Every structure is written in C-alpha cells, then in structure tokens.
Amino acid sequence: MDLELTDVQQELASTVGRLLATKYDAAARDEVLASEAGYSESMWSQFAEIGLLGLPIDEDYDGAGMGFAEVAVVMEQFGRALTLEPYLATVVLGAGLITAVGTDEQKSELLPGVAAGETKLALAAYEPAGRYDLTRPGTTASVSESGVTLTGEKSGVLGLGAADRLIVSAAVDGGVGLFLVDPAAEGVTIDVRTQADGHKAGSVLFDSAPATRLGEGDASAAIAAVIDTANAALCAEAVGAMEASLKMTAEYLHTREQFGFPIGRNQVLQHRAADLYATLEYAKSMALYAKLAVIENNPDTRHRDVIAAKLVIDDACRHISQEAIQMHGGIGMTMEYPIGHYAKRLTVIARTFDEADALTAELAEMGGLIEARAADLQAG
Amino acid sequence: MDLELTDVQQELASTVGRLLATKYDAAARDEVLASEAGYSESMWSQFAEIGLLGLPIDEDYDGAGMGFAEVAVVMEQFGRALTLEPYLATVVLGAGLITAVGTDEQKSELLPGVAAGETKLALAAYEPAGRYDLTRPGTTASVSESGVTLTGEKSGVLGLGAADRLIVSAAVDGGVGLFLVDPAAEGVTIDVRTQADGHKAGSVLFDSAPATRLGEGDASAAIAAVIDTANAALCAEAVGAMEASLKMTAEYLHTREQFGFPIGRNQVLQHRAADLYATLEYAKSMALYAKLAVIENNPDTRHRDVIAAKLVIDDACRHISQEAIQMHGGIGMTMEYPIGHYAKRLTVIARTFDEADALTAELAEMGGLIEARAADLQAG
Amino acid sequence: MDHLLSPEELDFAHQMREFFRTEIPEDIRYRQAIGQELSKEDIVTSQRILNKHGYAVPNWPVEWGGQDWTPVQRHIWLEEMQLASVPTPLPFNTAMVGPVIATFGSQELKERFLPATANIDIWWSQGFSEPNAGSDLASVKTSAVRKGDKYIVNGQKTWTTLGQHGDWIFNLVRTDPDAKKQAGISFLLIDMKSPGVTVRPIELIDGGHEVNEVFFDNVEVPVENLVGEENKGWTYAKFLLGNERTGIARIGDSKVALARVKAYAAATKTSRGTLLDDPLFAARLTKVEAELTALEFTQLRILSTQVAGDDKPDPRSSVLKLRGSMIQQDISELMMDVLGPQGIDFVDSREVPTGFTTLPPGAVDAGPHYYNYRKVTIYGGSSEVQRSIISKALLGL
Amino acid sequence: MDHLLSPEELDFAHQMREFFRTEIPEDIRYRQAIGQELSKEDIVTSQRILNKHGYAVPNWPVEWGGQDWTPVQRHIWLEEMQLASVPTPLPFNTAMVGPVIATFGSQELKERFLPATANIDIWWSQGFSEPNAGSDLASVKTSAVRKGDKYIVNGQKTWTTLGQHGDWIFNLVRTDPDAKKQAGISFLLIDMKSPGVTVRPIELIDGGHEVNEVFFDNVEVPVENLVGEENKGWTYAKFLLGNERTGIARIGDSKVALARVKAYAAATKTSRGTLLDDPLFAARLTKVEAELTALEFTQLRILSTQVAGDDKPDPRSSVLKLRGSMIQQDISELMMDVLGPQGIDFVDSREVPTGFTTLPPGAVDAGPHYYNYRKVTIYGGSSEVQRSIISKALLGL
C-alpha cells in the first residue's frame, strides 16, 4: 500500500510551489485580483510553459498524458497560493469534457490550444432556476439544416469572460447534449460577475446562438463524471487553502502578542487550533479518497465516494475558514491581510457544484458507505 | 412583565428544597435506588404531608387547587435532588388525566387518595410497536353487557410497580379511550423494569382485563395535553438536574488539583464551563417558555411551544450531561460519585415522550415559531 | 411577547409599534428590512424623527431628552423599533458618548454637546481601539500632551466604524505616560475637521467600507474638550462599555432576518419542492428559531429581574452577547444557504442586463452579510472574552 | 480498502480474513458482534487460538512469538480481526507488559513471563493510575521499599480494568521517595495472589463491573520481579504508553458497530417508514459514515508514511485517538437513538415474560454501551491531552 505522491508528482508539486512562491505572493495576487480580467495572462503562459495546462491532455494533442493524480497535485498548490486563473474551468471541466465526448477532430482543434495556453474554455451547464441541478436543462438546442442554435440562459459559468469557447449543455433529442459556442458569436450575451473569492463567473444568454455539437449522444453521464472530477479537484484545492490557512493562523498565534504574551499561549486557542488540525487531516484524507475514486472511475462508487469526500471537505472549509478569522480577530476581516481571502475561497468552494445538505441527503439515499449488517438480524 | 416566582412559589421551592436537602442527600438516595421498590414510601408520605401530591388537584378533592406553575417549582427541586418517587406518573400524568376527563364520581374516588399519598397512578399509553406515537393504540377495548375488557400490550409505563391504578389508552369507537384498570386484576400481567436513571417503568399485558372507562368520548386531545404538561414538567426537572450538575462540576473544577493546581485553572475548562452556563440559561428560559405555554393553554400554540422548549432542553441535557462527565474524568463514570446519576437522568429525560429529531421535524412541519416574512416578497 | 406584558406595558408597546410604522419613512424601513446598506442621510433622517418625539435617547437623563422608562419599556422600545425595521439610533452618539458626557461632563460640555448629539447634528465616531491592541483596550498609546490650554494629540486609532461620516470623535488618550496602564488615560473629544486628523478606510472582506483608521498628527485640542478629570478616562470607558448590555443580543433584528430567510426559503425551488420543505434545511432553521426564542426569554428573564430591582452586573448579559452573536451568524449562514449558487457573487444590484433572469431577493446582501457578520463574535467583547467573564463569575477562578 | 493493497498484502488480508472467520468459534464472534459482554473464558479461548497460530502478539520480537510484519500487515491483522468480531488479544498482556518485558526485562524474566503472557496463562492487570492522579500518571504514591531480597509495597491503584480476572499486575511504584517526580519510579510485577493484595470493584454508571481499585498492604514482592533497573520505571512506562498508537482508533470495531446501527435502523418502524429513511437520522448517520471513512484514510495515510520508513512520533496519532473516540461515542449515541424508548431500560436479556413482545436487538447493550463509552474520551490520554499534544506540535508553544 502506498498512498504517498510518486517522485514525479512530488517534483511537480515543488515546481508549481516554487513558481507560485516567487511569482504569486500576496502582493502579486492582490494585483491580479484588482485587474479587470481577474487573472494573469502572464501566469497562464507560465502554466503552459511548465506543462500544467496540458497535464491531463493526451499526448496526441500536445498534452502530457498524465492523469487526475497530477491535476490534484496542481490544484492543491493552487489552493495554497489562492491562484485566480481559470484552470478548473479550462483544464478540468473544459478539456475534460472535450476529452470525454469530443470527436477526434474537435480534440485536434481545441486541446492543443488549451495545452499551449492559447485557448480557454468554460462550461455553461447550470441555470438560474435549476440551483445545482444539471440533469434538466431549460436551454434548448434547435437543429435545422442550416445548423444548430441554442436558446436559453446559463448561470454560474466559471471562467466566463476569459473563455474563448463555451461548452454548453442543452436539451436535445429527449436528453442532454453538449455544444460548443463562440462567446463572441451573435445571439450570445455574457454578463461576467465577480465571485466573493475574486474568481470570475457569470451568466450567458443564448438567443438562437450558433453552436456545434460536441461529440454525440446523451452527455449526462459525461457531465456527471466531469463534475465529480471537478469536485475532487476542488477537494485538493481546498486542502491547499486550508493548510495555508492553518499555517498562517498558527504563525499568527505564535507571534501576535496581547496582554504581554503571544496569544497562542491561551490554552483555549491551542485546543481550538488542534481541532482545526484534526479537521485538516480529515480533509486531506477525503481529498485522497476522492482522488482515488476519480482515478479508479468505478461507475458504482465514483460519484458516491466523491460526494462523501466533498461533504467532509465542505464541513472542513466551514470550520477552518470561520475559526481562522475568529482566531485572527478583526485583522482577519480586512482585505489587506491574506486570511480573509482564504476564508472567502473556502466559503465559495463549499458552495460550488453542490451544497452540504443536499450532498448528505444524496449520500444517504445512495445507501451510504457502509453496508447495513447485524449478526442478529436478517439482511434487510 | 414579571417572570419571577411569586412569593408563594418561592416559599414552596424553599420548603421542598429544605426537605430534600435534609432527607434526600446522595447517601439517602443511594439507599432508595438500591431498594426493591425503587422509591421511598416514607418520602412519599412526607410529600403528601407538605401538600405536594395534591398541589394541582382541585380543592373539592382535597387538593391545594394550585396550577402548573407550582408543579414546575416542585419538579425543578426534584431535578436538583434527583428524586426517584413516581410524582410525574401519579400527580402530573395520572391525576392530570383524571382531572381532565374523569367523571365527578371518578374524581371523588381517586383524587383525594392521590392527594393523601394513598393512591399512586400510572399512565399506560405507549406500546412496543408504536415508538413515541400515542394516536393509534393497538390495545383494544371490548365493551359488552358484562363490562369492558382490554386486550393488548403497553410499554414504557412510568411508575409501574408502585401504581395502584393504571390509566390505559385503547382503541374504542374508532377513536382513543382511556380506561382505569386495577393492576392486580386478573388478565393483567406486569413486567417492571428499571430505567438507566433508576426510575421504575415497564410493560403491561392485558388479556381481557376488566376495565372501567375513564370519562367518555375521544381522549386523544386530553392525552396530548397531559403529555405536553408532562413534557413541561420534565423541562423543569431537567433544569434542576442541570443546575445541580453544573454547580457540582464547577465545584469539582475548583477543588480538584492536578499537576499542582486546580484543574479549573485550565482556560479550556473555563471556557467550556462557560458554554455550559449559557446552555443552562437557554434551558431555564425554555422551561419558563413551556411553563407559560401550559398555563396559557392556547390550543393553537401550546403543543408547538412545548416541543420547541423540549427540543432546546434535550440538546441542553446532552451537552451538559456529556461535558459534566468529561470534565470530571473517570470519577464521573462511577456510581459512587453523584454526577453520573445526573447524567443518566438527563439522558433519559431527553428520550422520554419523544426524541429530538422527531421534535425538530414536527416543529418545522407546524411552521416553526416565527412567521415567514420578507418586505420584498409576497407572503407565501 | 405581548401576553407577558402588563396592560400598561402593552399600551406602551402598541404606541411604539404604531409610531415606528407610521412616522419613520417607509422607504428607509424597506431598505433596512431587505438588508440594504443605509446612507448617512437615512440614519440621520430616522434619528431626527425619533428625537423630535423623544425616542432617540430614552436612556439619557430626562433633563437632556431621556425618558423615565422602566427596563421593560426600554426593551419594548428597542424590540419594536427593530421589528419595524427602523434603524437604531447611532450608538456612538446615544449609547456611548452621550451617557458619558451626561454623567461625567461639565455643565458646559453637556449644553454644548448633548442636544446636538441626540439630534445627530454631530455624528460621533469612536476612538478606542488601537492597532494590535485587540481586546486589550487599556493599552492606549495615542498620546495627548498638554501645552497651555491645548492638548497635542499624536497616535492612531483603528476599527472606527462609520468614521467616514464622523464630525467629532471621542478618544481614549494617554495623558500620563508614567502611570500604570489603566491610570493615565483621559477621555478627549476631538473635532475631526481639526488639522492633522486623517481618516483612512479599511477595506473589509465583505467588499464594504465600514471601518476606518484615524490618524492624529500633532492635532491641537482645546483642554475644555476633556471629559471629566484628566487621567480618569478609564473609569468613563468602563462605564461606557458596561452600558446597554441587554440590547447587544439584537433579538428584534434577528427575528426580522430569520423571517426573511424563511420567506425566501419558501420561495426557493429545489429539485424536491421548496427549500423550506427540505428536511435538513428546515431542521437547521427550526433549531435556530428555537434558540432565538431561548435567547429572547433569557433577555426577558434578565429584564424581569431588573424590574425586581437587582441592578448588579450579571453574567447572563455575557450569555446574551455570546449566544446572540452566534445566532446572528447562524442566520447569516442560513441566508447564504438559501441563495445557494446565487449567493456566491458580489453584486451591487439585483438588476441584470436585459434578457437575463433577475437575481433573487437576498442575492445582493447574503454573501457580504455573511462575511461582515464574522465581526459579531469579535467586536464588543469577543466570544472568548465573554466566556472568560462567565467562567469567572461561575468558577471564581 | 482492498483495492489499495499490493498483491502480497491482499493475499495476506485474505489469509487473515479466512483464518479469523474459520478458526475462532462462531459463538464468541457472535457475542462480540452483538455487543454482549464476553466472559474471561471467551477472551482466553480466542487468544489461545490466535497464539497457537502466531497471531496473538505479532508486535513482539519474533523470538518470543512475534511476526516480522510491516506496519500495513499489522494494520490488516487488526482490521480483519475487528471486522470478523474476534476479540482483540488482551492489551495488558500483548500491548503493554509483554513489549516492556521483551524490551527491558532480563533473559530470566522473559523466559518466565513472555510465553505465559502471549498465551494468556497469566492474565495481567495494569497498576498505573492512582486515586486523584488523573492524567498526571507520574505522581505515583504507591511505595516499594527494599528490604533484603524483597520490596514491601504499600499503596493503592485504581481504574484497573478487568482486574477481577487478574493473575498478576504490573505496577509503577515509587522506589526513591526523595527523587523528583518522574525519577524514583520503578516497574514492578506483582502476583495478585500475594497476601496483602485486595481488589475492590468500582461500580460504573453503565451498571457493569469493568474497573477496580487494587490495594497493597505490606505486600512482599521478590526483587527479581523488578523489570529493568530500579528508578527507571518511568522510561518503560513512556515506552508502553507510546505503543500501538494507530490501533487506538478502533476503526474496524466502529465499522461493525455502525453497520449494526444501520441494520437496526432499517428494521425500526417509525410513523413515517423506517428510521433509516428518516431524513434527520439518516443525515446524522451518513455524516458519521463519512467521518469514519476520513478517519480510516487518516490511519492509512499514516501507515503509508510508516512504510516509507519514517518512524518518529506523529501528531496524527493523536488525531486518531481524538477523532476515533468521538466517532465511537457518536455511534453509541446513534444506537441509543435507534432504540428510542426501548434503550432507556437496563435489562439483562432480550427475553421477557411469556406473552410480552421480545425486546428489539440492541435493547440490552445500547444504553450501557452509551454510558460506558463516555470513557473513550477520558482514558488512554483524554481528548484534552490529545489536543495539547497536537497544538504543541502545531504551534510549538
């Protein structure tokens, strides 16, 4: 049994970690945050250069041909530095779906550009009325001889604004299809918003907008799978952000003095920090659990295991983000101090793709993780 | 606005408190606990002497003609001393139901005996298959010319063993009726058990057991009302037991030394004790809330308010009983030290008549305590 | 609560209810009710109406505009005000500097400041906290050195709420650098238009501008602006901090906020019905409702004791702060959960470009509110401070 | 977990699974599975079978019956044993005194005690805790005064688990009253049949007899019963307490217990279906399931690091104890909630007089178990001690 990172993964972690430590410190990040685009094109190019953007893309399409394990390594580092670039949108969701359902031609057209840092993608799948539901899009595709057009509204589109191409889910043939849309095309209106964590997202309106079908057949399973993968990626990112939050909080407790001694001498804060540490360990374990589930990709257990992981991690995000601010006191609520930025990202992660109550109910309905069994009862 | 006890109530509290302080200390209680009957006849007589048993009974039937406010005062004192006598069973449930639905004749026959300490009662309403449900008894009453007989099984009968007369709910006329049964009669089998807290309760089997109808008509509302009253009484008892638990825990923290100083110097224990104090305040407030609801007896809100109170108090029972043991350490788990006895009573109270999850769901379904309202939304 | 009140108290409650709902402009109450940030003008308008009718500063001496009310009446006044979504009078004026001047100030100071303070002709700011002081308020470093008939003030204050609107600021300053910590502090009133006063906004994670840093660079302050005696300022500060402990639970506000959560939840569709029907959400909401009731009755029990004449400090006031702030945070979190994916963005308005679906109610304030309310367990005596107070009373350690 | 194992590890797991489920008598495993208290005979029978096959003391040196297993193999051994409801070998023998004698004892002591200890021919009791010591184990007061070739032992031990079955007891005794706390302590083996040894039961709130007080009244103990050197006992005690930290999470046991809760809940009717369908109960259960998985993977991550060769003490072991004990308590509470009104009574058997409804599964053990499990956050290093360990490692304070 070996659950540690491979040498290659460790090297990857160090490479990304070093890059971010030098180029993406709090001051650099503040600049990115304040920028119109909300992310750094220059960082994006550097991500491309060191191969992060093509990491999970097949070698045939200029990618590195690696797997989710490596993506998770990158996401954890991104979480640590709180990067703002649309990696999840472009590489995990976008390239993930193209890889899953795209035709060879579509892959050839789009994936090399992603790997090279030239093409950004966004998945437009959620809708204003649907909350977190992906299975019943109100957006419809209309197929005629002159081509396909889409009509409807999407919301919560991560990476909107930066995206060169949208992947849009729509009702078609009694099921759900995926479509490629140029956000600059006629009939497409975008409304980019800024999330609490600084990430750009937003809504898109399609009014008979020209579209191309991505792959063929019903895409529901592919969408569900890519959201599982993205959730596992968020788990990794959350772990990075929580580890950084705890480290920062521990340092603060160690150095901040009040009434003449470091506030970390307060036993109450020590014990609460210990609880945060335990919570972080749980989160790390469940990020690993989600990662293994995505890699194994067992259709009977993947979704179940990922939501179990996200559930624990949502709780951890809440616990650590709230306590980190409380233990910092007022300074933790200011934009000039980093801990609040972490708290905001963690709060958003716990509300991205799902909500904890619904995950809990869903996991329970799926039968949970442990089989009911009592020696003095018939199975039932 | 005056929420304090009246002078009479304060006097009552002192009288009961003094009696119990002198006659019902931990050693005396241990003896009662170890006895076959599980309660003290001598204490029962003294309760009768100072008028506690007839407290809420009408003066026409030799009672004091007081109300639930005074019963709550007594219950709180009983909670503080952790008395084992079947007061709830006899006075609150038994006499309460007879007062509510009994005929004048039945009241004359039974209530003076209760007030005098000569008659004990028990309500047999729960059934093994019904969990906490009271509305659909499987026990049936069969009415013929020779009289009424009951057939069925009851469980969770508080005060069983001591009771001279059982009040039994049974299906009759398409509704629920109440019946008086002599536990010594033919066709009645009783199985007395000891609860975790030392109180006696148990099951009764009726096999065409002779019975007399208590009052007439459907008794569902009366049963629901008396359970609300009993729940409010348990709230008061729980407050007494929790206050004693917290006092004992605070004293322990103050006097117990480890590593050379009182363990209460540990800031962690100080803050956790403070949380217990806050929890106790909530419990006191909700015991008051339940008491006012029972006294006001508004049919639209009484049940709702009582379960809201019990819900908060169940949580408080859990918080305080668990933390009181944890803060005592191993000694708190021994029978020779009182705190564990309090913990057991509190654990049982939180599971008497209801369970917290079900209360929460019920309160939610009743619409909760606060009306939904938003200035920017139509009422809906 | 009505059924607990005496007939006189009930009359009073009806009178207040009627007053707040008819005299305070509906648009102000509407903005307050739906969680919009109020402008300075809103706050001033509202308070001046209150003051005109004698309802701005009931806790002050009657001579200066106060009311000879019982604790229960004061509670009713505040509760009804919050339930009517009337903005409460500016606490820096009415609960802080006003009572201090009224109690410890000279007749001259009273005449000069109290009417203007009650009527919010002066908007007061608070200059207590300093950088890195945290809960250790007595570690004042801002100095006031007497030079003739002036003090020369140098130093920095922080966390000055709404300081951007401030006309005057009341400060703790160190007038005797050699005295021990609490000694050597004075209570000084400073005109914020004085040369050398600079206000710098602190940007908070909720995206708003609520608090400020205030810098004093050789600011000249006339000695007559000293309240009470030199070096006795800590006494006045403690008096100030001990005021109005029961109002701190903000129960009326929490009721309004929770009613709003509930109404939105009932209007929020999920895949299985409305969010209010969702068993897990409903359970969390219901527990908070029950706890809010417990909090309210804790407050009423304290009031009831006060009526009975016991006026010594009560650890139960700390329970009100400790639990009241938790409940405020819980409600802010429930509101976030109602909004779900639509509570993630920071937007200025529910309006969207043509054709897009309008954002749901709460979309503007749910997120900022949640982040902003992280403060309620930190300020005004953090939860940690409250627990220490309670345990001291409880354990005597 | 199987899919995480290497082929060799998987073979090993299958071998263990098979062994435990075929060689250990089914009636013992059944009693263990449904929460019945096991008799001394059950425990002895089971351990002797294990020992016969070399599976009682894998953590010991191979020369004394141990196995040269990897940490992962040891984990598999324990996990499969718990999943098969096989009672784990008596920890006083196998995890405590055995390793101490094997590491610090003389050759003579080893020969005399180790085989009998592994085979539970001697039932060991633990004589560490003393009245009022609590977590302060080094405050040993029981004295052993050397007189010729004997020690004269006087004093009292407490919390001696299953001491009523004990043949021998290993003790911390004070041999140098003048030395500082931790110095002056020795590790002494005492035959419990010696004159002057009295065992008195401590009655616990769960109604059972699990722990004891042990009194020593001028007990004569041959000096050859000293382990290692005089006054070095604290070193051996620390070694003992540091052993087997990963097993402390009891994950296999918790899985079995949770599966049982779930099966009972599915069989429990409520007014709306089964308890397992109740959204609030199911949510609580599901959260505990997810947390138990998190705990398991935390344990596996530690094991994985151990494989990689890092053997220094790890604050994550304290996480295992802290959270593992919480989960055990949570499960015991869920079980209480499954039983509902029928978990309130203390009964010896599910059997009832003729005609009455048989009590549901769990009715006998749910309550006592809940009360008994209050101990798991107290003993073996309380939760408070674990938090202090973690924060020390984390904050270095």
Automatic annotation (TrEMBL), chains A, B:
Arranged from A to Z, the UniProt key words for this protein are:
FAD, Flavoprotein, Oxidoreductase
Matching Pfam families: Acyl-CoA_dh_1, Acyl-CoA_dh_N
Q: Which cofactor does it need?
A: FAD
Spans traversing the lipid bilayer: none
Q: What region holds the Acyl-CoA dehydrogenase/oxidase C-terminal domain?
A: 230-345
Secretion signal: which residues?
none
Chain ranges of the Acyl-CoA dehydrogenase/oxidase N-terminal domain: 6-118
Q: Which domain of life is it from?
A: Bacteria
**Which PANTHER family does the entry link to?**
ACYL-COA DEHYDROGENASE, ACYL-COA DEHYDROGENASE FADE28
Family the UniProt entry places it in = Belongs to the acyl-CoA dehydrogenase family.
- Record protein name field: Acyl-CoA dehydrogenase family protein
TrEMBL record, chains C, D:
**Acyl-CoA dehydrogenase/oxidase N-terminal domain residues:** 6-119
Q: Which UniProt keywords apply?
A: FAD, Flavoprotein, Oxidoreductase
Gene3D superfamilies with a match to the protein in the record: Acyl-CoA dehydrogenase/oxidase, N-terminal domain, Butyryl-CoA Dehydrogenase, subunit A, domain 2, Butyryl-CoA Dehydrogenase, subunit A, domain 3
Q: Where is the Acyl-CoA dehydrogenase/oxidase C-terminal domain?
A: 231-395
Q: Identify which cofactors the protein needs according to its UniProt entry.
A: FAD
Under Pfam families, the record lists: Acyl-CoA_dh_1 (PF00441), Acyl-CoA_dh_M (PF02770), Acyl-CoA_dh_N (PF02771)
Which residue numbers delimit the Acyl-CoA oxidase/dehydrogenase middle domain?
Answer: 127-219
Q: Which InterPro entries match?
A: Acyl-CoA_Oxase/DH_mid-dom (IPR006091), Acyl-CoA_Oxase/DH_mid-dom_sf (IPR046373), AcylCo_DH-like_C (IPR036250), AcylCo_DH/oxidase_C (IPR009075), AcylCoA_DH/ox_N (IPR013786), AcylCoA_DH/ox_N_sf (IPR037069), AcylCoA_DH/oxidase_NM_dom_sf (IPR009100), Mycobact_Acyl-CoA_DH (IPR052161)
Tell me which family the UniProt entry assigns to this protein: Belongs to the acyl-CoA dehydrogenase family.
Q: What is this protein called?
A: Acyl-CoA dehydrogenase family protein
UniProt organism field:
Brevibacterium gallinarum
